[in-house]
Amino acid sequence: MNIEIALTVNGETVRETVEPRTSLADLLRDRLRLTGTHLGCEMGSCGACLVMLDGAPVHACLVLAVQADGQKVETIEGLNESGHVSDLQAQFHDRNALQCGFCTNGMVMSAQALLSDNPRPSRAEIRDALSGNYCRCTGYEAIVDAIAATADRRAGIGETVE
Amino acid sequence: MTAGNEHIGQAHRRGNALRHLAGRGRFVTDLALPRMLHAAFVRSPMARGRIAELDVSDAAAAPGVVRVFTAETLNKTCAPWTGTLEHFAGMKSAPQNILAEGAVLWAGHPVTMILAHSRAEAEDACELVLLDIEEEEAVVDGDAALLDGAAPASEGIDSNLCFRTVLETPGLDDAFASAAHVVEESFTFGRHTAVTLEPRAVIADFDPSTGQLTVHQGTQTPYQFQDVYARHFGLPESKVRVIAPDVGGSFGMKLHVYNEEMATVAASLTLGRPVRFVADRLESFVSDIHARDHRVTARMAVDAAGTILAMDVDDMTQIGAFSTYPRTSVAEGNQVIRLMGAPYRMPDYRGRLSVVFQNKVQTSQYRAVGHPIACAVTEALVDRAAEQLDLDPFEIRARNLVADDAYPHVSATGYQFEKLSHQTSLAKLRQLMDYDTLRSEQAELRRQGIYRGIGIAPFVEITNPGAAFYGVGGARISAQDGAVVRLTPGGDVQCAISVTEQGQGTETIIAQIVADQLGVTPDQVKVTTGDTDTTPSGGATWACRGAGIGGETALRAGRRLQAQILAIAGAVLQADPATLALAGGAVIDSGTGRERITLAEIGRIATYRPDTLPEGCDNSLSAVQHFAPTGYPFDFTNGIQASHVEVDIETGVTRLLKHWVVEDCGRIINPLLVDEQIRGGVVQGLGPAFFEECLYDDMGQMTNASLADYLVPMAGEMPDIEIAHVETPTLDTILGAKGVGEAGTAAAGAAAMNAVNDALRPLGARISQTPMTPLRILTALGHV
Ligand code: FES
Ligand code: FES
Predict the structure, then answer these.
(1) Domains of chain B (ranges plus CATH)?
(2) What are the Cα distances from residue B213, in Å, to B113, B205, B225, B265?
(3) Chain A residues with CB inside 8 Å of B18's CB?
(4) What is the nearest CA distance from A119 to chain B, expressed in angstroms?
(5) Which of B213, B343, B346, B763 has the fewest CB atoms within 10 Å, measured from its CB?
(6) Under an 8 A CB cutoff, do A38 and B682 touch?
(7) Tens digits of residue pLDDT in A27-43
(8) For ligand 1, what atom is nearest to the CA of residue A62?
């Protein structure tokens, strides 16, 4: 029994018919081909699938597509185009805070959520905020540096990078 | 005329990182092809047994299912593979094929492959397969596997001993007899696994109309798979193309041959349409190679002055039911016994290695193959010796490290070192970490009941391997690499090279190197990797060879093109090419630096107006170069790490306070990327030291095969890592670069184990098993 849903994805209205078991991640990746949202565990442990649902980060692997009916979803593609995370992206690039890039979408989501709740986090608070984001490549320090540097720049401290 | 070195050594940012930051990565998991089918596997739930009944008829009739394969229908398409190499004398392993035939040999062994229009439908149909297995007693423990009368872990082998070897110097017994002190210990190094964030992923796409097989595969070694698929499926090599696009982490795990990848290729060949297999996380745990799993007993002889005389080591390592293909599961143990004591002058040594079959997932090469085991054992014993002699850990190492002016040096195990910098690194570390302050702080805190520990661990790392590594054993694994560098008609540069990118920055460093040979900026060099149709054949990325061997290949290819460009420029300008050079995107007069003609103009003339060149002038703007390392069999690097920890003796929880690394990887091409390789490597060493372990029960079932149960290192638990460098270039190449990707992993666990034991020392406790879980620490303390 398929269900019809309508939601806003990256500012565009989307109508789809989905099975009740279809996850939001599968809707985004397989149907809408928004492949910037990644799947690393499909059980809420790794953070690779984080997207913004009505402004708050959620695991797209755990949320069902039907649960997103009527809501606003933002993926990394949308955040990228909106320019809202361009400073974070620039710091990640400058600090080489990604290697394979598979965790990066989730890291940017967590960082963005952290900085909107707590604009001046300590390094320990940043590490804590990443407690649901697994990265096998970087060892995390560069990611912490990039987020700290973004917080500084948003507070008017330090130089911005392009 | 050689161009300058403006870009080699600079912290260039990675252009390809921008794609990932924009959500525009292109991983195999993202690819969807027309008419593509999705694969799922029915796997053995038992570690050992015989298939009594297998009925797939309900599954075949399930909605969305297109085809069901069993061993009977799939294995005949593929020539079996055997994971042995000739240079490991006497090693054995049974031949393997795609799906289990008769016997199931580990929990997770694939039995049936189901192809459907979606993965969900394929998984649903898996539930409908009737699989009845008569359970047999599994070989679980390696020591038990070696007992007389133990059942063999696979069919066609007469015992569970895959390989045994002994290295021994003649003076070993005398060294122990004459020693003032002998320290000894037994160690257990847990089994862990790669847990790349992107699981294994492959899409095989066979087009029967042309006979062309294209395989999109998340791997670090596309040429190796091109060769494997061509040989095992009887295809001409030119009809097999392997493309490795963005790869979400590999670390050695994605270069082995797996049943599922072979099944995917076989299914596409049979059905003539694209077939996709992406492991879900649960099946990753029971099918990706595992790593380590060693039991080591070791002793060390020292004289009264703390001079290390000898080590005597016995390593038993457990590898699953088969040795992996095509690199074997012996390479790890082989490196364990050869790397023991490597940083030290130690003259005598005996190392014994037993590689043992059992009914678990295969183990094989994973980042820092063998290094963490050899380093942890050696450094634990050095610390024990220091304790006996009441020497500071820095002092005993200062007395024993091979002196910086004593090269070339050959280790007791036969490794040849061109030039290393242990003493300089030791001194640098002491300063970097402010050792004396940390020690007084430690003493102060102990009085308050806070147990902090400091551990250090020097190491060597094997990089830039030559053909001695695999080629001599008969493996079709290339030790050479190739590059094509060309100047476009518009004056830009492109480089297609056989080394591959998994995020370490391969493409960036290749661009830097080529840029310097051609007088352009790295941004002007477009680098292509990871496609067997568009790049020359080569070894690609493994054993830390990308920068050292790939970089040298790019450098020589760049120089070759430089000479071609200068020859054309000389003809156009009627000048002696020897008086010309390349800089700033142009041909310049090397004496005065004056610009003579731009590269764009050379490109234009050679491409569109070759008629204006003098007769006989070669207008080629492409240069091909292959390079195989010569000289030393490997370029060893060295370094030293330190770990600072605090152990809560009530809970057994260890807090990692800080980590330091001094590293010498020779010529540094990009300091930013080198440091991030080291940091990532350190965390991959600390993970298994404290958290990561594939746990099995007595029946051979993995009991924590999910990312909720298997603990990986997360940001909150990991320390900041401070890094310093010494630069001792290899003279084997023009570039002078060695590898760095495994250095962090090599010694991080060793430093951490020494740090934990340093913290526990006043309590008379000691730990020699990884991961050092809170429970194991409490057990060591006698609290449980
Ligand atoms: S894929 Fe959703 S948390 Fe891992
Ligand atoms: S960059 Fe590879 S997982 Fe984070």
Answers:
(1) 15-24+480-627 (3.30.365.10), 31-136+195-287 (3.90.1170.50), 290-467+631-780 (3.30.365.10)
(2) 20, 6, 12, 8
(3) 89, 93
(4) 19
(5) B763
(6) no
(7) 999 999 999 999 999 99
(8) 2
